[in-house]
Write a structure and sequence with these properties.
With 215 residues, the chain is mainly α. The chain folds into two domains: 59 residues, Orthogonal Bundle (Arc Repressor Mutant, subunit A), CATH 1.10.10.60; 145 residues, Tetracycline Repressor, domain 2. It has eleven helices and no strands. Helix 5 packs parallel to helix 8. The longest helix is centred in the first third of the chain and has 23 residues.
Length: 215
């Protein structure tokens, strides 16, 4: 367990850096062991801090995990905003969103494990998170605007629910990657081979775009 060494005391004088280090350590611990298996002692060791500082800044394990899962969702929402999808033609915007989501999952596997852990606990840490509700509401509105533009141009159906589309875009990548080990055995192919990953991405893009075509 980490102790109050002179170095630790020195680091604690920079609250922002200390909190950031604790959150990075907590993200690692929770993504590996889930909420149930993670231990505050391990977070303290990873952060080169101590439990007293963790409790001081984040209250308890429940609140620390809530902050970690909130940050995980906000990170992907923030990255999506930087795509400037509202400035792209509708079809290009949706394709870019599908591609981004897939690549984000590949680059941030801890996001998937954190979401898995929160679902095991029935989203009890997100239920009262207003910041997450607002972030996702903005995302749904943006996708809705893209769909409306596409419908006006006659390239998308007019009855597509943006929430259903967001779920589908997340699902076609999420399931593949969270089941990559069992899937590789069941289907007798390496699902993480670069060629397989690219083929899956193209399949995802084609699947989503076909679902939006007008009748």
């Amino acid at each position: 367990m980490a102790t109050d060494t002179p170095a630790a005391k020195s680091r604690s004088r920079d609250p922002e850096a200390t909190q950031k280090r604790i959150l990075q350590a907590a993200k690692k611990e929770f993504s590996i062991k889930g909420f149930g298996g993670a231990r505050i002692d391990e977070v303290a060791d990873r952060a080169k801090s101590n439990k007293r500082m963790i409790y001081h800044y984040f209250g308890n394990k429940e609140e620390l995990f809530q902050k970690v899962i909130e940050d995980a969702y906000l990170d992907i929402r923030t990255a999506e905003k930087k795509l400037n999808l509202e400035q792209l033609p509708p079809r290009e915007a949706i394709e870019k969103l599908v591609r981004f989501t897939w690549e984000y999952y590949l680059k941030n596997p801890e996001f998937l494990t954190l979401v898995n852990s929160e679902n095991l606990h029935r989203a009890k840490h997100l239920k009262n998170s207003q910041v997450i509700r607002e972030a996702h509401s903005n995302m749904v509105s943006m996708v809705g605007d893209i769909l409306d533009r596409g419908a006006q141009e006659g390239i998308f159906r007019a009855d597509v629910d943006p929430v259903q589309l967001n779920i589908t875009i997340a699902a076609v990548g999420y399931y593949y990657l969270t089941n990559r080990f069992t899937g590789s055995i069941i289907y007798d192919r390496d699902l993480m081979d670069p060629a397989a990953l690219e083929a899956r991405l193209q399949f995802n893009i084609d699947t989503v775009l076909r679902s939006l075509r007008p009748d």
